Amino acid sequence: xxxxxxxxxAVAAIAAHMNGDHAEDNVLICRAFGDVEPSSALVTGLxxxxxxxxxxxxxxxxxxxxxxxxxxxxxxxxxxxVVRMYQEACAKLGVEPxxx
Length: 100
Known about the structure:
The chain has 100 residues and is of the alpha+beta class. The protein is built from 3 helices and 3 strands; from the N terminus they run H-H-E-E-E-H. Strands 1-2-3 form a 3-stranded antiparallel β-sheet.
């Protein structure tokens, strides 16, 4: 995942935040865009092209890559892109987004 304009510490921090604070969002995003029905999903990485999850599907692990709307150029874009993914996943799955 070397095509990022930020390093592995930032990737680890983003993954820790998503997995610690947004575990249900991870599942929604994988359901909507990964063509899987996971019981859980963890962010295991990201690159300039996509957010990468390991989803538990039927008791086994499956890698799910969900592309960004455009290649990332800086860390600030990650938050905007994840929020977009979450909102689009809710719309696609008919789930009411938080705060609405």
